[in-house]
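Below is a filled-in request sheet from our internal design queue. Each sheet records the structural input a requester submitted and the sequence that came back. We keep these sheets so that new team members can see what a complete request looks like end to end.

REQUESTER: design group, bay 2
PRIORITY: normal
MODE: inverse folding
CHAIN LENGTH: 159
BACKBONE (tokenized):
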């Protein structure tokens, strides 16, 4: 009999991360609405996908988009703007795969420093970011709404 951890590892191997395409917009927008209280509009996603500063990826398993990530690169610095995993697929390493893709893509473009903001209470995300070398460097008071909460500003500095 296969253990749950073995089954999860086997399923994770079937998760692929690829560049987002315009055909993915609807599924990504659905993830936005599921994962964020301040979800982005379809237009904002579409504009970002066409923009020169943003890089988007989707995580896909069995033909279904189960996560997505957005990295913005400006003036040699990277900002992780979004990372979302469908609630049905959390705690399976999909966020880690997306983070790995963003980090490798940034490094390939010569980016050494990256930043992000995360809800103070989102300990799972904070631990993930710390495992990639991000460290807290500041806070934005009352940054998030629904519920009102501080943002923790984290940086990965390699320069």
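RETURNED SEQUENCE:
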């Amino acid at each position: 009999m296969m253990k749950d951890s073995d089954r999860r590892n086997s399923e994770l191997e079937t998760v692929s991360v690829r560049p987002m395409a315009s055909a993915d917009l609807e599924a990504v927008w659905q993830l936005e609405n599921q994962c964020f209280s301040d979800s982005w509009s379809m237009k904002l996603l579409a504009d970002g996908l066409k923009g020169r500063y943003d890089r988007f990826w989707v995580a896909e398993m069995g033909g279904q988009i189960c996560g997505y990530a957005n990295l913005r690169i400006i003036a040699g610095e990277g900002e992780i703007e979004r990372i979302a995993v469908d609630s049905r697929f959390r705690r399976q390493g999909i966020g880690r795969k997306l983070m790995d893709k963003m980090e490798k893509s940034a490094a390939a473009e010569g980016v050494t420093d990256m930043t992000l903001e995360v809800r103070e209470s989102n300990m799972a995300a904070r631990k993930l970011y710390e495992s990639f070398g991000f460290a807290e460097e500041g806070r934005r008071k009352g940054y998030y709404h629904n519920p009102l909460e501080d943002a923790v500003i984290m940086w990965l500095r390699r320069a």
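SHEET NOTES:
- Confidence is low (pLDDT under 50) at residues 4-9.
- The chain is about 35% helix and 35% strand.
FILED BY: M.R.
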